[in-house]
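1st attempt posting a full record on here, be nice pls
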Amino acid sequence: MKKVILIDVDNTLYPRSEGVFDIIDAKIHKYIKELLNLNDEQIEKLRISYFSRYGSSLAGLIKDYNVDPEHFLRYVHDVDIRSKLKPNKQLKEKLRTIDAVKIAFTNAPIEHAQKVLESLGIIDQFIEIFDIYRAHFIGKPNMLPYKTIVKQTKADKYAMVDDQKVNLLAAKQLNMFTVLVSEEKFSEVDMCIETFKDIPNDII
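the predicted structure (as tokens):
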């Protein structure tokens, strides 16, 4: 039986407290500020609206302002990952003991995902990275990238691990077992854990 587990990268494989995504978040805010000359409150409202309607700020900026997605992604992910994240032997062992094909499934560009996985010392645990480029800039929670992965992998069972509930609700539409990495609890997903190391080895 072929089993596939889709694993988000940022704030899923490492805690949000490491600060990596906080830097990315600040750069997204700055990008929009320079592009549209909005104040901070207007930017936050716009980003909430984009996340609600499209799943990401990038998707909304492409639709409304024809933003160059490659320029946006290079700018906001220009982060010194190696100064933030270090090899995690416990995380690597946890991934090794999960009996499934492991795919990194991220709305970030592959270069960023590779830096994160390399810095954590776990890149060898993943058979591939399905990034925002492979999704043609249509990221989670849009159903297209999920269906593309399922079509390409043709597994018997799927699980997905993410720190965003909305991304997991999309996965549930394809009958994937869903695991939320968050301090918050939601009954809509199949399992809630606080850190990735809490995931059972026999999750799938």
